[in-house]
Fold:
Amino acid sequence: MEQQVNPYRKMLTAAISAILLELGVDSADRDVLGSLTEMLQCFLSEIGSMSHNYCELSGRSEPVIADIILGFVEMGIDFSGLQQFVKNGKSVVLPSLQPQQPQKQMNMLQAGTKQPLPSHIPQHLPSFPDPHAYIRTPTHKQPVIDYEAIREKYAIQKKDMEKALTKFLCRTNPIHNLFDNEEANIFPLIACKPTFPPYLSALLPQDQIFDVEDLEYIAKDQDQAQPPRKRIKSECKVSDSKLPTDDEEEAQENVTKATEKENLNWDIDNPYLAATKLPVKGTE
Amino acid sequence: MDHLENSNEESENQAQTLGQPLSDFLLQLEDYTPTIPDAVTAYFLQTSGFEPKDPRLLRLISIAAQKFISDIANDALQHCKMRSSNASSSHSSSKGKGTKDRRYCLTMEDLTPALAEFGITIKKPHYYV
Structure:
């Protein structure tokens, strides 16, 4: 209902509850209790101010019973029945002596030791909060940033990438088996498609791009063929999509051409094999 | 003017005459403990600037307040009883049971007419803040 209710009001409510119980009421609505509490509080305040006024009016600072009586009269309260009320009322029902409220000791979680105030701060100012409130502590491991480690990491990453790509190609492309038995192709080799001049791939620089202009040329040329990424690992994979020069195309058989066309379509379907867009001023 | 003063005096005289037994009564309050604790009464009196040194005065006020509430509550209880007896007679189904373990629950329905008899109009607020 109310967290921060005046304890005196609470006591008034308790007193009213006692009175009601004594009268034979078993229960009362919260509204009723609230109204009665309010009225009781008003009554007390009112009689207080009335008596106070009468007291001061007669030039006294210490109230006497006459002031209260006048207050009663002023408020129109019939006090003649009070004595009777006390006599026949078994109203000596004490509201249970208020048990000292067990002071709920909120256990503050103490984290770290509080820092003493520095000398330039007056001692009457509040002390610092727990250090965790203002001290920054890294919550993660600081990354290693020395050159060797980064190179090593880079190499490992590159190797992993190549391995993964090789594996992927083994799954998707035709492979050769190293051993003849069919059931266990433990060492799959990516099938190599012979090109007409077998040394051509060795002659064409594919691993590295030295010149931006060169890159543009290659990009234009390769657009449809294959992402250059793939060629990173060209050791084990003979480029299955050669750069088609006119001579080559003439020389190639129809069958291979057909398969290549198929390948091309398939390439485009597969997002992993689609041509990547090279940045215009790529610096790899 | 004269008349007014006279009436004033009269009322004061009346108060005195009525107050006389009250001052005697005050002497009995030495060992009496009203339902409203002294400290609570003292607190509310203090909020209006009234600080009696004599605890008997406090008790007198406490008793007056207690009687005030008690009268109202008693009236409300009568209303409640009347209402429930009416309800039970109109139902007339479980009369024996109703008289036995009838539980009185004071509601605003009972309190409002009781207060109206005392000249206090009470209204339900439109909503709670």
